[in-house]
Amino acid sequence: MPDIIEPRLLKGFRDFLPEAESARSSLMRKLENVFSSFGFVPIDTPVLEYADILLGKGGGETDKQVYRFIDNGGRDVALRFDLTVPFARFMAQHTEDLYLPFRRYHMAKVWRGENTQRGRYREFMQCDFDIVGVDSASADADIVLVIASAMEALDVGGFIIRVNHRGLFNRFLSRLGVGEKGSAVLRLVDKMEKVGSAVTRESLAAEIGPDAADSVMEFIRREEGFEPTMDKLVRLCPEGDALAAEAGKRLREVFEIAEATGFSRSLSLDPSITRGLDYYTGIVFETTLQALPDIGSVCSGGRYNDLASLYTTKKLPGVGSAIGLDRLLAALEIIGRQEKLGGSPQVLIAHPEGASLPSLHTAAAGLRSLGVWAEVYPEPRKMQIHYAYAEKKGIPYLAQVDASFESSGLLSIRILAERRTLDPMDMKSVAAFLSKGST
Fold first, then answer.
1. Which of 66, 86, 291, 381 has its CB surrounded by the most CB atoms within 10 Å?
2. pLDDT of residue 333
3. Are 243 and 169 in contact (CB under 8 A)?
4. Whole-model pTM?
């Protein structure tokens, strides 16, 4: 007899049992509805890319986390670490096949070999949505509005979308005379919520000197309200700087659109939001849940006007965001808002001894045609076995088909939680009863 291989999982990877996967699938369906309502269309890309396509596009820290190997054909390949870089490659290859501006969404797994912690894994699902081919306040605002609409559709409770502009930060660093160290400074600031302001200030001082570090800490401090914060940012940038003025104008336009559409209450101008990835060039945002801010951002993104230029000479400015579905699910579970089991049949068609299989499946097909999820138990068993199966799977109702079904079309419905059987009904009445959720 061969040795039994011990079943085990790699650290940072998980199996999803039906209840967890059904909850995730339910969230994804809701997100698809939101994306489609804003005119976004789905795409897909390979999980493996040539390593040179991915490396150096997210920054030094991300490069260290990439799963990279030589395949059997001797090719240097890597697993995608996000969906944005493959999308830039996708756009460069397929521009002639698409229309601009192009709105896409993509929900798929990505991989990063990072330290695992609550809500953070090495294999995880991202839900990306982007607008490519235009650089405008309207496109930036639409991404913010999709984030807000998605959070409301997912019923996460209170949330805050914290917004900043990398252009303002870059111009400020230029005024300080440390522009050449901008990437390092941005990454240190991006880690501040994890390590604290004191550690951040100390790290900045080691990188750019104590005086410049104090100036950066002043710049990233959020004031009370949009206007005081905006005024401070403009004041600390080079006087009369055209790029800083344009960045400030863009932020104002986005907030005006959010106010006009009723979402301004969910927005906050926060200069400490920088995003650690190198490819961001403009507006950036992170979304936190008010009930659980410590879990970090559940939806992040920004504008990346130059990323596609790595693969093509065509100008393809873009803006987008990604919802970290696994982190969001972990947060919803902690705060008690996790999706209930979705995707299970509402009715189990009982299969007693001597039952007519065609009748059982006819009943199930008829209920499905009326919008009821129905499952036929696959073999004859005692009712106690049916009840135990339905309870474990979360099916609330059992339908019994008797010998007269072919002529009468009547079903007996048992409400399992109440251990009560209703009078026989035709299938339309059954469907109407179940759609009301009545007991």
1. 86
2. 83
3. no
4. 0.83
